[in-house]
Amino acid sequence: xxxxxxxxxxxxxxxxLCTAFELLRRGRSVVVVDPGEANASAAAAGMIAPAMxxxxxxxxxxxxxxxxxxxxxxxxxxxxxxxxLFRRPAEWRGAAAADMAAxxxxxxxxxxQDGDRLITHEDYQVEPAQALAAxxxxxxxxxxxxxxxxxxxxxxxxxxxxxxxxxxxxxVVLATGADAAxxxxxxxxxxxxxxxxxxxxxxxxxxxxxxxxxxxxxxAYVAPMATGAxxxxxxxxxxxxxxxxxxxxxxxxxxxxxxxxxxxxPLDIDWRxxxxxxxxxxxxxAGAAPGGQGIFMALAPRRNGWLLGPLxxxxxxDAIEGRAASPHARPLDPARF
Length: 337
Ligand SMILES: Cc1cc2nc3c(=O)[nH]c(=O)nc-3n(C[C@H](O)[C@H](O)[C@H](O)COP(=O)(O)OP(=O)(O)OC[C@H]3O[C@@H](n4cnc5c(N)ncnc54)[C@H](O)[C@@H]3O)c2cc1C
Known about the structure:
By secondary structure, the protein is of the alpha/beta class.
């Protein structure tokens, strides 16, 4: 079977769905192909956290501006896509609170420190399960279950081959997370995807509430979730295995109780793993793929796929439509590598 369509998005994680939703609301015809298995986006805590991420990672002022711009797109994007956006304070607890406050303030973020606690109102949160479901519902029958095996040039466009059939596409968006490149790409695009570093992340879904808002500290964070709370998360570069590791879970939980300043209590916790993809500079690759000709990338957002999803979606949609690039396109251009 061959189906016609205009733009095929490969992968239905947060980057693929944000890009597809952005294209849809610009009136473009779009199809998303994904095998429907667990992915990093579903495992995440959903923090839209420019201030905490910039302070934790020692971001430059330009990177902090990019994170802030990503956050600022969320209220409108969430409303359009039917995603619940939570604007609660976020807290850092621990000896580094003064240092974290100084870093945030130097980068222009609001931060109030009191002893070993810091509160910021700059960070938001979504519930990944609800957000993914809302975008999937908006895209409806445009999401097809399958795995893309290869792409091949076909006239002015592309033929996208899956295990069950093929699609004709005027453009293809690669949003395949930390997975291997599909066959048939230009050598330069293949090389960029092969260089994406996998970073395993383990997170625990607790069946009861542990904190009224995000609380972060040395070695762990606790974030509210509809089901109760999540306790996260490990950063294990180079690992792709997705079986939860009991020792890593125990270490995270110990750190979380210390951050909360509470003695450990019995807790029902369901451990999950996601594999983040990271580029060499930690920023996503968004825009035309090297080798061009209608292949685009929405890849490798490291720890900030949720924060930067709408921004990546907009940058990729602009590139596909040949619109003037936003000021945020250049630092994300795959050609920077
Ligand atoms: C534990 C954990 C906590 C996190 N917390 C946060 C947070 O609080 N805030 C934040 O901003 N970020 C967070 N992140 C990071 C964020 O989750 C990732 O950056 C983001 O999910 C990456 O999205 P993605 O769309 O690139 O990849 P993925 O979510 O991995 O999606 C890629 C999709 O492509 C599909 N695919 C791959 N190959 C093919 C193919 N050939 N054909 C069809 N489909 C294919 C896969 O099956 C998958 O569904 C967290 C990550 C983890 C692991």
